[in-house]
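Please review this one:
***
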Amino acid sequence: MNRVRQLINADYAETVGIFGEGVGVAVLDTGIYPHPDFDTRIVAFHDFLHNQRSAYDDCGHGTHVT
């Protein structure tokens, strides 16, 4: 994770007062496992292949990316 912070210049962003608050992110991937850590963070989910609206990830890749 420290490498990622370096790649996106996160330390500099924080020194000038940018913390990412109020920023929404969309992840288009295999899905997301409804883990308690994501409880308040998943605001919408849609499976365009099987038309499901409940969060799941049968592959694991989307959860890993998230």
Remarks:
- The chain has a mean pLDDT of 90.
- Residues 2-7 form the longest helix (6 residues).
